[in-house]
DNA sequence: CTTGCTGTAACTATTGTGGTTACAGCTATA
DNA sequence: TATAGCTGTAACCACAATAGTTACAGCAAG
């Protein structure tokens, strides 16, 4: 199955935060929801996870959300982990309880484990190598291509 | 979300086929289901996909399944693709229809695309580098560790 | 004190997964 | 040629995750 769009939505939201101007209008969950094209509650749930991961600070009642770090100090892996699309080391699900009386059954899990772990790490290392800063830069450069 | 266990089950089944002895009893879907600890229909559905991908040959009514290639010529990426856990280039799902009137909204998809593609490729290349032969070798060596 | 926003619970529809029963169709073999 | 046994597949179920929605309590700032 596919990795939840929570991840891409989170990057979208963080990009909005990274690009927000000080003197700009307040970025409320409703505004962000408009840009993402979803429901404000979906955004608020997401912000809850990003907050829990220490990536953003949300002003409780008055509204407004801000990054706690520079965009260059936030990797996509941080985001990926924050939204918990996949638990640590669990990208692949492996069938449990294979027949222990069978040669293959009792060894398949450990035989596969190292490879699956490496595959997952390979994916995560790519995400670790890209920062929010790079994403917003890419957004601006995509924008320029259109002119 | 996690990648379906169809993948690990497929590797399990293919390992059984790779290790089967000529003069051994017939490997029916029921036998394989026993080793995997699931239902025979689940196995037959899976074999249908592996057959479609040209990895195995199934004898229709009399029973019995066989690899069409040497285990060394089957990579885990072949298996991964065969069971269609993830469509080509679609490991990450990205929210569609973001607000086009917004700078971030109209550029986020193309800004993320290359990175997500690279991440997925990284994962797949690890799988491409491991063959069924290596898996069965690992199974035997895990077995030996237990003695 | 009121306005407006966040935080969260609760419910829904949709989708993918994996298990199960049932049965048609075929093939090797007796 | 009859039959036993296996495959192929449809149909259904339970379960879990996702994403959208309504509703509302709580609170902070003006």
UniProtKB/TrEMBL annotation, chains A, B:
GO cellular component, one term: cytosol
MF term (GO), any: DNA-binding transcription factor activity
Gene3D superfamilies: Winged helix-like DNA-binding domain superfamily/Winged helix DNA-binding domain
A Pfam entry, by short name: Rrf2
InterPro entries associated with the record: Tscrpt_reg_Rrf2 (IPR000944), WH-like_DNA-bd_sf (IPR036388), WH_DNA-bd_sf (IPR036390)
PANTHER family in the record: HTH-TYPE TRANSCRIPTIONAL REGULATOR YWGB-RELATED, WINGED HELIX-TURN-HELIX TRANSCRIPTIONAL REGULATOR, RRF2 FAMILY
Protein name, as recorded: Rrf2 family protein
Organism of origin: Hymenobacter luteus
């Amino acid at each position: 199955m596919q990795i939840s769009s929570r991840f891409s939505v989170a990057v979208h939201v963080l990009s909005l935060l990274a690009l927000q101007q000080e003197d700009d209008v307040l970025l409320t969950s409703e505004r962000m929801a408009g840009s993402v094209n979803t429901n404000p509650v979906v955004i608020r749930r997401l912000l809850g996870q990003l907050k829990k991961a220490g990536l953003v600070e949300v002003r409780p009642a008055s509204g407004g959300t801000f990054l706690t770090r520079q965009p260059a100090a936030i990797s996509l892996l941080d985001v990926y982990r924050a939204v918990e699309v996949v638990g640590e080391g669990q990208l692949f699900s492996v069938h449990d309880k294979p027949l222990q009386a069978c040669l293959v059954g009792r060894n398949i899990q450990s035989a596969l484990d190292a490879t699956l772990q490496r595959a997952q790490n390979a994916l995560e290392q790519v995400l670790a190598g890209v920062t929010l800063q790079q994403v917003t830069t890419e957004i601006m450069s995509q924008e320029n291509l259109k002119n």
